[in-house]
Amino acid sequence: MTSILVVEDSWLTRRVICKILRAEEYETLEASSGPEALEMLGTQTPDCMLLDLLMPDMEGREVLQAMREKGFKIPVIVITADIQSTTREECMELGAIAVIHKMPNSDELIGWIKKALSASEESTP
After folding, report:
1. Model pTM?
2. To 5 degrees, how large is the angle CA 75–CA 45–CA 56?
């Protein structure tokens, strides 16, 4: 089963996203902070990650940077309310495959996940 790590500090938002993913038969893993997500990546390898940008303790950009430094090759979709083009560019430079607005509708979210998984499969030898 394809697994998606949802990294979101808002319990309600995390619940909604996980419900959408489970309805599409994805396995969901949950982290409420950047440090928790990085710790999980030490023991689990999700197929894709949905990452909130603005979180206390460790921002999404910092998580992306840490993932890059540690060599994690998991496709990451950043979810944010920040609509600035510089934010999008920074996230893409750090390795995100997409930056989408919070809260995406279910069709948009699933569409981006399918694109991320497809791109990941194509880049795997």
Report:
1. 0.91
2. 70
